[in-house]
Protein backbone atom coordinates (compact mmCIF):
# COMPACT_ATOMS: atom_id res chain seq x y z
CA UNK A 1 0.00 0.00 0.00
CA UNK A 2 1.37 3.41 -0.97
CA UNK A 3 2.31 5.77 1.83
CA UNK A 4 -0.36 8.34 2.65
CA UNK A 5 0.69 11.97 2.16
CA UNK A 6 -1.14 14.08 4.78
CA UNK A 7 -3.18 16.87 3.26
CA UNK A 8 -1.72 19.44 5.64
CA UNK A 9 1.89 18.64 4.71
CA UNK A 10 2.23 19.03 0.95
CA UNK A 11 4.23 21.18 -1.42
CA UNK A 12 2.70 23.87 -3.59
CA UNK A 13 0.01 26.49 -3.09
CA UNK A 14 -3.67 26.82 -2.20
CA UNK A 15 -5.89 29.70 -3.27
CA UNK A 16 -7.10 31.20 0.01
CA UNK A 17 -9.28 34.30 0.36
CA UNK A 18 -8.20 35.80 -2.93
CA UNK A 19 -4.53 34.88 -3.22
CA UNK A 20 -2.20 31.92 -3.48
CA UNK A 21 -0.53 30.98 -0.21
CA UNK A 22 1.97 28.20 0.55
CA UNK A 23 0.11 24.91 1.01
CA UNK A 24 1.30 24.38 4.58
CA UNK A 25 0.33 27.95 5.53
CA UNK A 26 -3.31 27.63 4.40
CA UNK A 27 -4.53 27.19 7.96
CA UNK A 28 -7.47 28.27 10.08
CA UNK A 29 -8.02 28.37 13.83
CA UNK A 30 -9.23 25.36 15.77
CA UNK A 31 -12.19 27.44 16.99
CA UNK A 32 -13.43 28.24 13.52
CA UNK A 33 -17.21 28.07 13.28
CA UNK A 34 -17.12 25.78 10.27
CA UNK A 35 -15.44 23.06 12.34
CA UNK A 36 -17.71 23.26 15.39
CA UNK A 37 -21.08 23.95 13.79
CA UNK A 38 -20.64 22.60 10.23
CA UNK A 39 -21.23 26.02 8.67
CA UNK A 40 -19.34 24.92 5.59
CA UNK A 41 -20.14 24.07 1.97
CA UNK A 42 -17.88 22.72 -0.72
CA UNK A 43 -17.60 21.34 -4.24
CA UNK A 44 -15.80 18.41 -5.82
CA UNK A 45 -14.63 19.30 -9.32
CA UNK A 46 -12.51 17.42 -11.88
CA UNK A 47 -9.97 18.70 -14.36
CA UNK A 48 -9.16 16.60 -17.42
CA UNK A 49 -6.37 17.55 -19.80
CA UNK A 50 -6.21 21.07 -18.41
CA UNK A 51 -9.97 21.65 -18.76
CA UNK A 52 -12.37 21.78 -15.83
CA UNK A 53 -15.47 19.67 -16.47
CA UNK A 54 -18.79 21.44 -15.85
CA UNK A 55 -17.03 24.32 -14.13
CA UNK A 56 -19.93 26.77 -14.25
CA UNK A 57 -22.41 24.19 -12.97
CA UNK A 58 -20.18 23.42 -10.00
CA UNK A 59 -19.65 27.10 -9.20
CA UNK A 60 -23.37 27.79 -9.48
CA UNK A 61 -24.06 24.99 -7.00
CA UNK A 62 -21.36 26.26 -4.63
CA UNK A 63 -23.07 29.65 -4.49
CA UNK A 64 -26.51 28.08 -4.12
CA UNK A 65 -25.26 25.90 -1.25
CA UNK A 66 -23.72 28.90 0.49
CA UNK A 67 -26.95 30.85 0.13
CA UNK A 68 -28.93 27.98 1.69
CA UNK A 69 -26.62 28.17 4.72
CA UNK A 70 -26.91 31.95 4.90
CA UNK A 71 -23.35 32.62 3.74
CA UNK A 72 -22.53 35.28 1.15
CA UNK A 73 -19.40 34.38 -0.79
CA UNK A 74 -17.16 37.50 -0.94
CA UNK A 75 -16.12 36.83 -4.54
CA UNK A 76 -17.98 36.71 -7.84
CA UNK A 77 -18.62 33.48 -9.72
CA UNK A 78 -16.17 34.58 -12.41
CA UNK A 79 -13.50 35.14 -9.75
CA UNK A 80 -14.08 31.66 -8.32
CA UNK A 81 -13.92 30.15 -11.82
CA UNK A 82 -10.62 31.86 -12.55
CA UNK A 83 -9.27 30.96 -9.12
CA UNK A 84 -9.79 27.25 -9.81
CA UNK A 85 -7.61 27.46 -12.89
CA UNK A 86 -5.08 29.57 -11.01
CA UNK A 87 -4.86 27.00 -8.22
CA UNK A 88 -4.47 24.15 -10.72
CA UNK A 89 -1.72 25.97 -12.59
CA UNK A 90 0.08 26.72 -9.34
CA UNK A 91 0.18 22.96 -8.69
CA UNK A 92 1.14 22.11 -12.29
CA UNK A 93 -1.89 19.84 -12.50
CA UNK A 94 -3.79 19.15 -15.72
CA UNK A 95 -5.60 15.99 -14.54
CA UNK A 96 -6.79 16.29 -10.98
CA UNK A 97 -9.39 17.05 -8.36
CA UNK A 98 -10.39 20.56 -7.27
CA UNK A 99 -11.90 21.30 -3.87
CA UNK A 100 -13.45 24.77 -3.38
CA UNK A 101 -14.63 25.20 0.21
CA UNK A 102 -16.56 28.05 1.87
CA UNK A 103 -16.76 28.33 5.65
CA UNK A 104 -17.43 30.67 8.57
CA UNK A 105 -14.43 31.87 10.56
CA UNK A 106 -13.63 32.14 14.26
CA UNK A 107 -14.92 35.61 15.18
CA UNK A 108 -17.84 34.06 17.08
CA UNK A 109 -18.10 30.71 18.86
CA UNK A 110 -21.78 29.97 19.41
CA UNK A 111 -24.70 28.70 17.39
CA UNK A 112 -25.29 32.24 16.18
CA UNK A 113 -22.52 33.38 13.87
CA UNK A 114 -23.77 36.60 12.31
CA UNK A 115 -20.42 38.42 12.64
CA UNK A 116 -18.13 35.69 11.33
CA UNK A 117 -16.03 36.24 8.24
CA UNK A 118 -16.77 34.03 5.24
CA UNK A 119 -13.60 32.35 3.97
CA UNK A 120 -13.02 30.67 0.60
CA UNK A 121 -10.23 28.23 -0.19
CA UNK A 122 -9.48 26.21 -3.33
CA UNK A 123 -7.07 23.27 -3.31
CA UNK A 124 -6.07 21.06 -6.24
CA UNK A 125 -4.36 17.67 -6.19
CA UNK A 126 -3.79 14.65 -8.36
CA UNK A 127 -6.67 12.19 -8.17
CA UNK A 128 -6.63 8.73 -9.77
CA UNK A 129 -9.68 6.50 -10.10
CA UNK A 130 -11.80 6.64 -6.91
CA UNK A 131 -12.02 2.86 -6.90
CA UNK A 132 -9.40 0.25 -7.73
CA UNK A 133 -9.32 0.03 -11.59
CA UNK A 134 -9.51 -3.78 -11.67
CA UNK A 135 -12.38 -3.81 -9.18
CA UNK A 136 -14.17 -1.04 -11.08
CA UNK A 137 -14.27 -2.98 -14.35
CA UNK A 138 -15.93 -5.98 -12.79
CA UNK A 139 -18.24 -3.90 -10.63
CA UNK A 140 -17.79 -2.71 -7.07
CA UNK A 141 -19.56 -4.18 -4.05
CA UNK A 142 -21.87 -2.07 -1.89
CA UNK A 143 -23.29 -2.75 1.52
CA UNK A 144 -26.65 -1.45 2.72
CA UNK A 145 -26.15 1.51 5.05
CA UNK A 146 -27.88 1.73 8.41
CA UNK A 147 -28.08 5.53 8.27
CA UNK A 148 -30.68 7.22 6.09
CA UNK A 149 -30.78 10.48 4.16
CA UNK A 150 -32.83 13.02 6.14
CA UNK A 151 -36.13 14.53 5.08
CA UNK A 152 -35.84 17.84 3.18
CA UNK A 153 -37.65 19.66 5.98
CA UNK A 154 -35.06 18.54 8.54
CA UNK A 155 -31.84 19.48 6.72
CA UNK A 156 -30.78 21.64 3.72
CA UNK A 157 -30.63 18.61 1.43
CA UNK A 158 -30.13 20.69 -1.73
CA UNK A 159 -26.85 22.08 -0.36
CA UNK A 160 -23.51 20.32 -0.71
CA UNK A 161 -22.92 21.02 2.96
CA UNK A 162 -20.25 19.47 5.16
CA UNK A 163 -22.65 18.48 7.94
CA UNK A 164 -24.70 16.27 5.62
CA UNK A 165 -21.67 14.03 5.04
CA UNK A 166 -21.26 12.85 8.64
CA UNK A 167 -23.57 9.86 8.10
CA UNK A 168 -21.88 9.19 4.77
CA UNK A 169 -18.51 8.78 6.50
CA UNK A 170 -20.07 6.53 9.13
CA UNK A 171 -21.75 4.40 6.44
CA UNK A 172 -18.65 4.12 4.27
CA UNK A 173 -16.45 3.18 7.22
CA UNK A 174 -18.91 0.49 8.27
CA UNK A 175 -19.02 -0.90 4.71
CA UNK A 176 -15.24 -0.90 4.32
CA UNK A 177 -14.88 -2.72 7.64
CA UNK A 178 -16.90 -5.55 6.10
CA UNK A 179 -14.91 -5.62 2.86
CA UNK A 180 -17.24 -3.54 0.69
CA UNK A 181 -16.18 -0.54 -1.41
CA UNK A 182 -19.10 1.66 -0.40
CA UNK A 183 -22.67 1.61 0.88
CA UNK A 184 -26.08 2.43 -0.55
CA UNK A 185 -28.27 4.64 1.63
CA UNK A 186 -32.03 4.67 1.85
CA UNK A 187 -33.94 7.87 2.50
CA UNK A 188 -36.14 8.79 5.46
CA UNK A 189 -39.06 6.91 3.84
CA UNK A 190 -37.08 3.72 3.31
CA UNK A 191 -36.70 4.30 -0.45
CA UNK A 192 -33.45 3.91 -2.39
CA UNK A 193 -31.50 7.18 -2.23
CA UNK A 194 -27.79 7.23 -3.10
CA UNK A 195 -24.35 5.88 -2.27
CA UNK A 196 -22.26 7.77 0.28
CA UNK A 197 -20.92 10.15 -2.38
CA UNK A 198 -22.58 9.16 -5.65
CA UNK A 199 -25.97 8.77 -7.31
CA UNK A 200 -27.58 5.40 -8.11
CA UNK A 201 -28.76 4.03 -11.46
CA UNK A 202 -30.34 0.70 -12.40
CA UNK A 203 -31.29 -0.89 -15.73
CA UNK A 204 -34.12 -3.18 -16.79
CA UNK A 205 -35.40 -4.11 -20.27
CA UNK A 206 -33.28 -1.44 -21.97
CA UNK A 207 -34.45 1.35 -19.67
CA UNK A 208 -32.62 3.21 -16.92
CA UNK A 209 -34.24 3.78 -13.53
CA UNK A 210 -32.88 6.26 -10.99
CA UNK A 211 -34.25 7.60 -7.68
CA UNK A 212 -35.86 11.04 -7.75
CA UNK A 213 -33.42 13.40 -5.98
CA UNK A 214 -35.92 15.03 -3.65
CA UNK A 215 -33.88 14.65 -0.44
CA UNK A 216 -30.33 14.33 -1.77
CA UNK A 217 -28.18 16.06 -4.37
CA UNK A 218 -29.09 15.90 -8.03
CA UNK A 219 -25.45 15.34 -8.94
CA UNK A 220 -23.82 17.18 -11.84
CA UNK A 221 -22.40 13.91 -13.14
CA UNK A 222 -25.86 12.39 -12.69
CA UNK A 223 -27.36 15.12 -14.88
CA UNK A 224 -24.61 14.63 -17.47
CA UNK A 225 -25.17 10.88 -17.69
CA UNK A 226 -28.94 11.30 -18.01
CA UNK A 227 -28.36 13.72 -20.88
CA UNK A 228 -25.97 11.27 -22.57
CA UNK A 229 -28.51 8.46 -22.24
CA UNK A 230 -31.25 10.59 -23.78
CA UNK A 231 -29.01 11.47 -26.74
CA UNK A 232 -28.81 7.73 -27.43
CA UNK A 233 -32.55 7.36 -27.07
CA UNK A 234 -32.26 5.32 -23.88
CA UNK A 235 -35.33 5.95 -21.70
CA UNK A 236 -34.50 7.34 -18.25
CA UNK A 237 -37.15 6.98 -15.57
CA UNK A 238 -36.78 9.06 -12.41
CA UNK A 239 -39.01 7.63 -9.72
CA UNK A 240 -39.32 6.29 -6.20
CA UNK A 241 -37.54 2.93 -5.99
CA UNK A 242 -38.22 0.46 -3.19
CA UNK A 243 -35.24 -1.60 -1.99
CA UNK A 244 -37.04 -4.87 -2.72
CA UNK A 245 -37.14 -3.87 -6.40
CA UNK A 246 -33.37 -4.32 -6.62
CA UNK A 247 -33.87 -8.04 -7.28
CA UNK A 248 -35.58 -7.16 -10.59
CA UNK A 249 -32.81 -4.97 -12.05
CA UNK A 250 -30.15 -6.25 -14.44
CA UNK A 251 -27.34 -3.68 -14.19
CA UNK A 252 -26.40 -1.07 -11.62
CA UNK A 253 -23.95 1.79 -11.67
CA UNK A 254 -23.14 4.89 -9.66
CA UNK A 255 -22.16 8.36 -10.84
CA UNK A 256 -20.25 11.21 -9.25
CA UNK A 257 -17.39 13.63 -9.80
CA UNK A 258 -15.00 11.27 -8.04
CA UNK A 259 -16.66 7.98 -9.07
CA UNK A 260 -17.41 9.13 -12.65
CA UNK A 261 -19.44 6.15 -13.99
CA UNK A 262 -18.70 3.03 -11.95
CA UNK A 263 -20.43 -0.35 -12.39
CA UNK A 264 -21.85 -2.12 -9.34
CA UNK A 265 -21.95 -5.90 -9.05
CA UNK A 266 -23.49 -6.27 -5.62
CA UNK A 267 -25.61 -4.39 -3.08
CA UNK A 268 -25.90 -6.49 0.07
CA UNK A 269 -27.85 -9.62 -1.04
CA UNK A 270 -28.66 -8.24 -4.51
CA UNK A 271 -26.48 -9.09 -7.55
CA UNK A 272 -25.97 -7.27 -10.84
CA UNK A 273 -23.93 -7.95 -13.96
CA UNK A 274 -22.20 -4.95 -15.56
CA UNK A 275 -23.40 -4.94 -19.15
CA UNK A 276 -23.82 -3.03 -22.38
CA UNK A 277 -25.79 -0.07 -21.06
CA UNK A 278 -23.29 0.64 -18.31
CA UNK A 279 -20.33 0.19 -20.64
CA UNK A 280 -21.91 2.47 -23.24
CA UNK A 281 -22.44 5.26 -20.74
CA UNK A 282 -18.92 4.83 -19.34
CA UNK A 283 -17.57 5.26 -22.86
CA UNK A 284 -19.84 8.21 -23.64
CA UNK A 285 -18.94 9.95 -20.39
CA UNK A 286 -15.23 9.54 -21.10
CA UNK A 287 -15.78 11.08 -24.53
CA UNK A 288 -17.75 13.94 -22.98
CA UNK A 289 -15.08 14.87 -20.45
CA UNK A 290 -12.40 14.78 -23.13
CA UNK A 291 -14.44 17.00 -25.43
CA UNK A 292 -15.55 19.51 -22.77
CA UNK A 293 -14.42 23.09 -23.51
CA UNK A 294 -12.50 25.13 -20.97
CA UNK A 295 -14.84 27.79 -19.53
CA UNK A 296 -12.15 30.01 -18.07
CA UNK A 297 -8.43 30.55 -18.27
CA UNK A 298 -5.95 32.52 -16.26
CATH top level assignment of the largest domain: Alpha Beta
Q: What structural class do the secondary elements suggest?
A: alpha+beta
Mean pLDDT: 94
> How many strands, what sense, and barrel or not for the largest sheet?
9 strands, mixed
What's the CATH architecture of the largest domain? Alpha-Beta Barrel
Helical percent range? 25-40%
Rounded to an integer in angstroms, the radius of gyration calculated over CA atoms is: 19 Å
First-last Cα distance: 37 Å
Number of helix segments? 7
Low-confidence region ranges:
none
Number of domains: 2
SSE succession:
EEHEEEHHEEHEHEEEEHEEEEH
| Fourth CATH level, the homologous superfamily of the largest domain | D-amino Acid Aminotransferase, subunit A, domain 2
The shape is globular
Tally of extended strands? Answer: 16
CATH topology of the largest domain: D-amino Acid Aminotransferase, Chain A, domain 2
Strand residues, percent: 25-35%
